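Review form for a predicted model. The reviewer records the input and the model, then writes brief findings.
Reviewer: anonymous (R2)
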Amino acid sequence: MLKKSKLVVALAAVALVASTAPAAPAAGSLEIFTWWASGGEAAGLEGMTTEFTKQNPDTEFVNAAVAGAAGTNAKGVLVSRMEAGNPPDTFQAHAGAELSSYVKAKQIEDLTSLYKSEGWDKVFPADLIKTLTTKGKIYSVPVNIHRANVLWWNPAAAKKAGITSAPTSLDGMIADLAKFKKAGIDGIALAGQGDWAIAHLFDYVLLASMGPDKFNGLWNGKTKWNKKDVKTAIKKFAKILSYGNSSKSLDWPDAGKLVTEGKAGYFIMGDWASSQWQSEGLKLGKDYTWAPGPGTSGIYQWLSDSFTLPVGAPNREAGIAWLKVAGSLAGQDAFNPKKGSIAVRTDSDPKLYDSYLKAAMKSWKVDRLVGSTVHGVNYGNAGMSAYNSVVGKFYAGNAKDKKGFAKGLVAAYKTNKAA
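Model under review:
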């Protein structure tokens, strides 16, 4: 690891970690709270930390990371710390509705002035800034853009199943799942640990089944959760699940290995999967390849990791220094090629990125943009938790209770509205 830095990776149960949260770091240090603890995530963070250390050589860097579950574990610990008045100097959160609870509780500072002083209002996309703005104020600094609606597969496994090109529709994908199954390969890799990865898959199926306008309507109330469009998506989702692996407890990296090892056909996962596989020594275009999620070509389902400045941060100036690096050209270009994401900044250097990320950069500029529900754009923490839980319950019950699933989705929407 880096000189003058130490890594605190909390792998214990969330309740145990929350009860033993670290005391505020000493002056002259920076405590940053993330869920980036392994693979491309850790590599990306180390890249940006190197840049921070160059600019702040006398500041000790403390990464209080809580690993696993796409941040689900970390969020529980963070809520406990914030409520106890023991905030870190900055914490990672998804940009969008996920920050709403912290804003309502007045637990994070308004960063609008930094956007002007650092010139981010000129180099961050205007539409993204609108998404980040709450009542004229901006409360986080996005460091990247991820794409959620990506189809991954192993070319050798596809060849064995007689599949020569990526499907372009949801029905076409389902037909391919049957081809994989006939060839003795699970049609799709499923990760049931923590519910979120299954909910990620369902979020994609909703988008591919009903299109972006009706999908967006689910979050603003124009599309009803208990009507035909959602019921159709549920039927297709159940069909897709029927072609998956038998284990219901895999974490997403383990599910991904089923694909790269030729044991499963397709995998719907965000583009962080590519950086994970590259950190394991696999080659893009040889060991695995990609396409936009079938039925969503021309649509970019996005999410963004961002950093905040907690009210009462023990080392506030160090927190601000970190935010400046997070939004800088040097910081974003040090972070994103390793993280497997693209920079928020429009002046990022494409030459630093691999072929997938170059394609993502182009798509980000021209595609229809829709938010990811599971990764904080459409729902706050309460809504996300309820959404993930109801999808996970449907999956655990072998996708049989479609009516109960639909009712649970309505309840999750109401939970989000009430939060």
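Findings: The chain has a mean pLDDT of 92.
Further findings: The longest helix spans residues 196-220.
Recommendation: see findings above.
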